[in-house]
Design brief:
346 residues; mainly alpha
């Protein structure tokens, strides 16, 4: 098992070593998107890379490294900066969060996009793109195809936002603060928020980053809720087995029915994320470490997504069709227009 894990990890690291510099060269795309894309290409061109011999390494990278990346990314959050945003911006952030999550539930049902894909596209649009998708995946164990579809959707509309937001902001005569709030609440990945914000003005970019940091904190209650819902579904499935007369349930089912310890409800990586943010806020993380920690977090997410890409079969994406992308378009439009509308009333 150790040898197969190392073999699989070696392949993941090779893909990551190519994806990270590409992401730095084209920051609008980013290393994680290159990671999953190169993983899919490598698995398609060299089918043997999808064999079970490599699977332990892929599983380790797509689970353990993914969870570790969320902990490391927590060091990028300063609670002092978050407090500076002020109460005035909270209605816009919470309103767009409700629009994205409510829209994912409603339009996901109407379009027939359900399960993990619906959840990840909703969370990615509502909070912070790839990082939110990574955290939700770590909490619910989402399918590879769902992760790939959600990332592709978020990436598509990040590009659209970066290209259209600055000219639209000037057309609407928005102040730097108003544009920063708009970009910080309606654009997903941090790199895209930075690109759009500073394309507008220095002040808009500074505001957008702080809003984005504050928005990232909503990962905590969302991930806790997803973990609780997953446990509830598992318990319901166990009760259904009993109801149809399956007899005594096996050990795995029995463990579901027992009272759950707190660590099952609160994922350890989330505790690490909060602890890392607390250390940063307390000044225990020197400013000089932040670029290295940010790069480390990005590398870990890229490695995890490269592993998902290596495991993914293109047929899993073809089976879903264009509906997830349509769901992402609807949610992006809701959040974009909703953020502007909420600002006008706040």
């Amino acid at each position: 098992m150790a040898a197969s894990r190392l073999r699989g990890l070696a392949i993941v690291l090779v893909i990551t070593a190519a994806a990270v510099p590409l992401g730095r060269l084209v920051p609008l795309v980013g290393g994680p998107v290159f990671g999953i894309l190169l993983g899919v290409i490598a698995g398609s061109v060299i089918p043997v890379l999808r064999s079970d011999a490599w699977r332990p390494g892929y599983d380790f990278a797509s689970k353990t490294l993914l969870q570790l990346s969320i902990v490391v990314l927590g060091t990028g959050l300063s609670l002092q900066q978050v407090a500076q945003v002020g109460v005035s911006s909270l209605p816009v952030m919470l309103g767009t969060l409700a629009l994205a999550l409510g829209g994912a539930w409603l339009f996901g049902r109407l379009l027939g996009v359900r399960g993990d894909t619906q959840t990840l596209i909703g969370v990615g649009t509502a909070i912070c793109g790839g990082s939110a998708i990574a955290a939700a995946t770590a909490a619910i164990g989402a399918k590879r195809s769902s992760v790939a579809y959600a990332l592709a959707t978020i990436f598509t509309f990040n590009i659209v936002a970066v290209l259209t937001f600055p000219p639209l902001g000037h057309l609407l005569g928005m102040s730097p603060e108003a544009f920063g709030l708009w970009a910080g609440t309606a654009i997903n990945d941090t790199s895209s928020v930075v690109a759009a914000g500073y394309a507008y003005s220095q002040a808009a970019g500074d505001q957008a980053i702080v809003v984005k940091l504050t928005r990232s904190l909503t990962l905590i209650p969302i991930v806790l809720t997803l973990a609780a819902l997953k446990i509830r579904r598992e318990n319901r499935a166990a009760r259904a087995l009993d109801a149809v007369g399956e007899g005594s349930y096996d050990g795995a089912t029995a463990s579901i029915r027992k009272p759950l310890p707190w660590r099952k409800l609160v994922p350890l990586f989330l505790i690490g994320f909060v602890a890392a943010a607390g250390l940063r806020s307390a000044g225990a993380v020197p400013e000089s470490w932040l670029p290295g920690l940010s790069l480390t977090g990005s590398v870990l997410i890229t490695a995890a997504l490269a592993a998902i890409g290596l495991s993914l079969r293109p047929s899993e994406l073809r089976d879903a069709g264009p509906r997830p992308l349509l769901l992402g378009a609807i949610l992006w439009a809701l959040v974009t227009v909703g953020s502007l509308g909420l600002q006008s009333f706040s």
